[in-house]
Amino acid sequence: MLLRKLGIFLEAKRHLRYVIFKKKYVNKFKEKRLTLIAKKTSVQEEVDAAKRNVQKIKADVEDWCNKVDKKIDQQLKTEYIETFEQQTESSFLELFQRKYANPLIVGVGLMLLQQLGGNSGMAYYASSIFVKAGLPSAIRLQVMSIIQIPVAIIALLLMDRSGRRPLLLVSASGMCLSCFLIGLSFGFKEITDLKALAPVLALTGFLVVATAFTIGLGGIPWIIMSEKFLINVKAQAGSLVTLVNWSTSWIITYTLNFMMEWSSADVDISFFFIPPLPKDKDKVDHKEDLKTISIADDSIGYDFF
């Protein structure tokens, strides 16, 4: 009996020690877990604080950079104005100096190319040309309005991607083709078997005119002219090329009617030529030209593009 009680006592003591051991280590585990959670929270708070500091520093740096950019822009504008005020206005005869020969030839040449393409003559006499070709005169407005607006949008999208020179070459080639087609339509009108093709060729020619002129020769010569000339001669050069442009337009418009009366229309409208087109300078080349010309030469050392 005594041994049995002793065994029960030892068994109860062993269970008690197990319970005490378990409770002790469970409490230690909870304490460590709480400690880790506290450390994690503290680290997360430090990370959030570091992120806030970085964002604040980034904002301060961006604000400083913006102020520096504005200050530099203001300084450049001030220097530009001061340099411009120091210039003496160039006379019209100075435009014909050797250093301005290349931009002058390109500007005047493009204006001549624009008008000698025949767009003015065909646009002003479109109604009479349509009537002589056997088409109703009212179709001219419909053709121009339908073609020119979408083609102008396409030309704007292609100008920066393809470049101006390819567009000018395509436009000039299209004007040559249109002159040939319209002249050929008047030639077919005199041939009995081909007379039915005359209205079709005339309409096709005017479609090509509207497309080709709008895509290149209509606006690109004016853009190149404004970029080619230095600022001290830009006013004189702009006046000269504008005078050449409208004078040539008047000559073409005035003489075309007489030429169509004196000879066959297919001969007059079919005149075309293919001039060489020099490569226009880009912004870098133009800036290099500006740097090489000093203030003593009545030129500007700065230009904004």
UniProtKB/TrEMBL annotation:
Main location: membrane
SUPFAM superfamilies per UniProt: MFS general substrate transporter
UniProt keyword list: Coiled coil, Membrane, Sugar transport, Transmembrane, Transmembrane helix, Transport
One Pfam short name: Sugar_tr
Coiled-coil positions: 40-67
InterPro entries registered for this protein in UniProt: MFS_sugar_transport-like (IPR005828), MFS_trans_sf (IPR036259), MFS_Trehalose_Transporter (IPR050549)
GO cellular component terms, semicolon-separated: membrane
Gene3D superfamilies: MFS general substrate transporter like domains
Subcellular location, record wording: Membrane
GO MF annotation list: transmembrane transporter activity
Membrane spanning residue stretches: 100-117, 137-159, 166-188, 200-224
Similarity comment text for this entry: Belongs to the major facilitator superfamily. Sugar transporter (TC 2.A.1.1) family.
Protein known as: General substrate transporter
